[in-house]
Amino acid sequence: MNITVLDDYQDTVRTLACFAKVAGHGVTIWTDHTKDVDELARRLEDTEALTLLRERTPIRAPLVERLPKLRVISQMSVYPHIDVDACTRRGIVVSSLTGPARPSWATAELTWGLVLAAMRRIPQEAAALRAGRWQAWPIGVGLRGKTLGIWGYGRIGAVVAGYGRAFGMDVLAWGREASLARARADGCAVAASREALLEQSDVLSLHVRLVDATRGMLTAADLARMKPTALLVNTSRAGLIAPGALEAALRAGRPGLAAVDVFEEEPVLGARHPLLALDSVVATPHLGYVERGQLESMFDTIFDQILAYAAGAPINVVNPEVLQPREGAR
Question: What domains are defined for the chain?
Fold first, then answer.
């Protein structure tokens, strides 16, 4: 099969052990990114199996209609970026392993790295030292005895809470009732309200899935409740925060710091985002799940799904109706 890998920014896939699984197939890897439908149609014109790295590239009907050779899309996790109905109409199988899974340890670890980096001003001081200056930034703040707010006590939030306890922090949870029940079972305190969470947290970390109900859930008024010394960390999705609210809040001084790994439109090139102009922000280019072990696990499954399709026995199919004989077929 002709297999295409999109958005492998760091040219990692060909170095994974699982890449050997597709050695007998033609594989094209794109390390840059485009959302332009005309360009994607050109790149994918001979593609029979398409792999997606999470939600980096949307696959919508206008593109699907221009890919007559495409037979299967293989990826992991949720698929809001794929027009499954359009794929079904064209007879394209969408395979994506979803459901209960272990936490993204990689995302939790990066979250904690951002907490330490922002509170102790590690990136700024490292850059200043290379530039010949010594202890050049306002002094950082330690974590012991401070309050760590976890908004969304799910798989990742629970791991980050554990890191906070290991650093001597008091953990305060908020979210849906099911997640709060889990927090209580783990011995964590639960905030009296979302307002209390915002007002009491010295570090507030967001671990909420972006859906219609949570888009823009953190407003300018919410951010204004935070301490001027507080840090807001977002390794989930940028859309959880109202557009423009975080930049404005940081300029107003509440919260005083932010650490972000996610942006509204990605990739961000040429430093063209207002958060990147603020000294109060530590930012990374959506590295949360981007770790060798995690990608090895992801593509091991992604390639297995393609091989299963090639063998005539597709697995993890999210549109099984495409496998049914069509009316009138013999």
Answer: 2-101+291-323 (3.40.50.720), 105-283 (3.40.50.720)
Q: Which residues does 123 contact at the CB level (< 8 Å), separation at least 6?
A: 117, 282
- Catalytic-role residue among 65, 266, 291, 296: 266
CB 258 within 8 A of CB 275: yes
The per-residue pLDDT for range 77-130, each reduced to its tens digit, is 989 999 999 999 999 999 999 876 678 999 999 999 999 999 999 999 999 999
CA 95 to chain centre: 20
Which among 121, 155, 237, 273 is annotated as catalytic? 237
- In whole angstroms, give the CA distance from residue 114 to residue 261: 9
Cα separations in angstroms, 46 against 2, 23, 54, 244:
7, 18, 22, 41
Write the pLDDT tens digit of every residue in 43-58: 999 999 999 998 999 9
Distance from C-alpha of 82 to C-alpha of 100, rounded to nearest angstrom: 21
How many Cβ atoms are within 10 Å of 82's Cβ, its own excluded?
24
Residue 39 bears catalytic tag: no
Q: Which two tokens stand for residue 91?
A: 């007879």
Q: Are 94 and 71 in contact (CB under 8 A)?
A: no
266 as an active site residue: the answer is yes
**How crowded is residue 205: how many other Cβ atoms within 10 Å of its Cβ?**
28
CB 52 within 8 A of CB 35: no
